[in-house]
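In the design runs reported in the main text, the only information available to the sequence generator was the tokenized backbone. The following block is the verbatim input for one such run; it is reproduced so that readers can re-run the procedure and compare outputs position by position.
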């Protein structure tokens, strides 16, 4: 995949307001190959609110793929002109959606908006209609408010939905709550050495750190609940196995392993300190520090880790939908999950610090929204 993608997005409502849905497709800008599709039912909403939701879904999908540059094509004149800054967002109900879209735009290096005729947006239109079909149980064709008609109106909730609002995001449905725990201290972390697939054990201090984390998790809301104990899903390496076992000992939950949660494969840099890697591979190491597509010799790029973790996230959300789960992993996969939740670009890998045995919390909603509740908390150390 090139770092530039094309996002085609659409949304519609059968009634304006009425049963609504949105669709988005992400294509590789060079080949035109479809990289991702989104089709989301929105309950009751207006046309323009659904159009914005389609844009948001497409931008999130592009961010999940690690895109740096995005060309957005939509047949909504209103959304294109407002996002381009030529028209004001006058309707109060559209302002939060426009603000959310702008926040996602800020996570890319470059974004361009282009209006296209409806006939050139057929793929996204089909996805939006599929979502509306699911809302109504019919095969009607979506209505259209017409270009430049600012009707506003955020989506309301279908009667069959389970509701747990997430503040101003307007997220719908019961989220999957993911408690993210990094493993404890190892001899490699003491010396600040690249530690990827090398299988090292925790130090005594590391064991103390994860026992404290386990006790904290056991006392958290939703971990030990009447409907069951939160499962623990861990990277299969020794340091994460030991960390996960400490959590299981404290909570009584079931332990599972997932290869998608493995740390980055640092290749020939494995075991080297930061300075040693910089001295031995000066140009490559310098480039790796700012370009997520660069691979260490014989290793794995951060973009490749992100794609692997994205697939893992999707797998976990399907398997444990609506539940609380504990994920025990390494610094890069945890950063990747936080990046997915925040809807930001690869800069997060370089700007976010995560301590050993730190706890972060994310809620992923079935409508594609997410809420980051906690990042890098180590209060259980004391």
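Verbatim output:
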């Amino acid at each position: 995949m090139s770092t530039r993608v094309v996002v085609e997005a659409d949304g519609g409502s059968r009634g304006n307001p009425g049963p609504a849905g949105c669709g988005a497709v992400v294509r590789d800008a060079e080949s035109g190959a479809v990289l991702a599709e989104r089709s989301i039912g929105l309950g009751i909403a207006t046309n323009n609110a659904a159009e914005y939701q389609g844009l948001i879904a497409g931008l999130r999908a592009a961010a999940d793929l690690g895109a740096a540059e995005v060309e957005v094509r939509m047949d909504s004149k209103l959304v294109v002109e407002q996002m381009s800054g030529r028209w004001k967002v006058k309707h109060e109900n559209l302002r939060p959606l426009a603000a959310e879209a702008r926040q996602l735009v800020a996570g890319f290096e470059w974004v361009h908006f282009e209006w296209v005729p409806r006939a050139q947006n057929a793929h996204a239109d089909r996805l939006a209609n599929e979502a509306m079909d699911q809302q109504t149980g019919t095969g009607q064709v979506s209505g259209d408010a017409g270009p430049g008609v600012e009707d506003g109106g955020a989506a309301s909730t279908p009667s069959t939905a389970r509701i747990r609002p997430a503040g101003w995001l307007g997220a719908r449905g019961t989220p999957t709550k993911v408690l993210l725990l990094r493993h404890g201290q190892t001899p490699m972390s003491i010396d600040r050495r690249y530690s990827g697939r090398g299988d090292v054990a925790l130090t005594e201090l590391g064991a103390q750190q994860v026992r404290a984390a386990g006790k904290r998790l056991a006392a958290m809301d939703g971990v030990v609940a009447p409907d069951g104990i939160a499962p623990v899903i861990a990277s299969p390496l020794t340091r994460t196995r030991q960390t996960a076992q400490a959590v299981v000992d404290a909570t009584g939950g079931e332990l599972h392993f997932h290869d998608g949660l493995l740390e980055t494969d640092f290749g020939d840099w494995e075991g080297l300190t930061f300075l040693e890697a910089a001295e031995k591979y000066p140009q490559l190491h310098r480039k790796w520090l700012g370009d997520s597509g660069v691979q260490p010799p014989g290793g794995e790029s951060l973009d490749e880790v992100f794609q692997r973790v994205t697939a893992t996230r999707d797998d976990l959300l399907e398997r444990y939908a609506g539940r609380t789960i504990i994920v025990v992993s390494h610094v890069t996969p945890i950063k990747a999950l936080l990046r997915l939740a925040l809807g930001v670009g690869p800069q997060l890998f370089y700007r976010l610090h995560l301590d050993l045995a730190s706890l972060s919390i994310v809620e992923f909603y079935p409508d594609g929204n997410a809420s980051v509740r906690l990042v890098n908390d180590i209060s259980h150390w004391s």
